[in-house]
TrEMBL record:
Record's keyword terms, sorted: Cell inner membrane, Cell membrane, Hydrolase, Membrane, Methyltransferase, Multifunctional enzyme, Protease, S-adenosyl-L-methionine, Transferase, Transmembrane, Transmembrane helix
GO annotation, biological process: methylation; signal peptide processing
Lineage of origin: Bacteria, Pseudomonadati, Pseudomonadota, Gammaproteobacteria, Alteromonadales
Residue ranges of every copy of the Prepilin type IV endopeptidase peptidase domain listed in the record: 154-262
Entry EC no(s): 2.1.1.-, 3.4.23.43
Designated name of the protein: Prepilin leader peptidase/N-methyltransferase
Known function: Plays an essential role in type IV pili and type II pseudopili formation by proteolytically removing the leader sequence from substrate proteins and subsequently monomethylating the alpha-amino group of the newly exposed N-terminal phenylalanine.
Keyword Transferase part of the UniProt annotation: yes
Length: 304
């Protein structure tokens, strides 16, 4: 392993290329996570609701059971998780052959259409695969073959998955935010990106920063401006990068969110009351801070 790391250090272009290919392959699996994890969560919620009704509202449960309304998400197989069943076309249910699952290349070979029914395959699949590969290639260029690179790449995988799910479902799953929050604290136990003290304070401050804004906005308007998943995502970045990076992340995410939000109002005719997920903006801002945060802070302080 040490000799491989040394070899990659001597040939950075090879390392960056390998990082891109590997991350693009992982991106194919991330597409599966983005689609299947919310389905798995909805099934779990429905099963919990059914159990609650059966125990505490037996009359309502029997009525729903009689109408056959209790089976959760029947359009999916009973055994449904991140591994099984094998991927199929959402239209004709034809099995997707392994070479059709090749990241980016498979979509291009198929011409963006299902091999069986010729229905269009969403372009988001190769986009997410390419984006995943590009982000990790940048990390490889920035960090080199180091433990920092490996951890940052794993975090990037999670951020891509969270971004896709939030765009689709307006949801940041605890199954992703909480484990990666703890991973950040564990990584910084060894002072990987910041000190352990900064990481713990960062996790607390990250959560409270948006939690405070949420309650202030709700007290003033009576509306909820964001979800609790956004608080946890900010806590995640505090745990990874320390409390010092939180102002930069809040500033960048607010700036990106404002630009995109205004653009959608102008060009897509969306109303101001249309909900827009804030998680992708936090994820993008946090990733930028992960790579260039200290350079941005030093540049800003140098201009004062």
């Amino acid at each position: 392993m040490q000799s491989f790391i040394s070899l990659m250090g001597q040939y950075p272009i090879v390392f960056i290329a390998l990082a891109f290919v590997f991350a693009a392959v992982i991106g194919s699996f991330i597409n599966v996570v983005i689609f299947r994890l919310p389905v798995m969560m909805k099934r779990e919620w429905q099963q919990e609701c059914n159990q609650f009704l059966e125990e505490y509202q037996p009359a309502a449960y029997q009525a729903l059971e009689k109408q056959k309304l209790l089976k959760p998400l029947d359009q999916f197989p009973e055994r449904f998780n991140l591994v099984v069943p094998n991927s199929t076309c959402p239209k004709c249910k034809a099995a997707i052959k392994p070479w059709h699952n090749l990241p980016i290349v498979g979509w291009l070979l198929l011409g963006g259409k299902c091999a069986a029914c010729k229905q269009p395959i969403s372009v988001r699949y190769p986009i997410f695969e390419f984006l995943n590969g590009a982000l990790v290639a940048i990390l490889a260029w920035h960090f080199g073959p180091t433990i920092e690179f490996a951890l940052a790449a794993v975090l990037s995988f999670a951020l891509i998955a969270m971004t896709g799910i939030d765009l689709d479902e307006m949801l940041l799953p605890d199954q992703l935010t909480l484990p990666f929050l703890w991973l950040g604290i564990i990584a910084n136990y060894f002072n990987t990106f910041t000190s352990l003290d900064n990481a713990i304070i960062g996790a607390i401050a990250g959560y409270l920063s948006l939690w405070s804004v949420f309650w202030l906005f709700k007290l003033l308007t009576g509306k909820e401006g964001m979800g609790y998943g956004d608080f946890k995502l900010m806590a995640l970045f505090g745990a990874w990068l320390g409390w010092q990076m939180l102002p930069l992340i809040i500033l960048l995410s607010s700036l990106v969110g404002a630009v995109i939000g205004i653009s959608m109002i102008i060009f897509k005719g969306m109303g101001r009351n249309n909900p827009i997920p804030f998680g992708p903006y936090i994820a993008l801002a946090g990733w930028i801070a992960l790579v260039w945060g200290q350079d941005i802070v030093n540049w800003y302080l140098g201009t004062l």
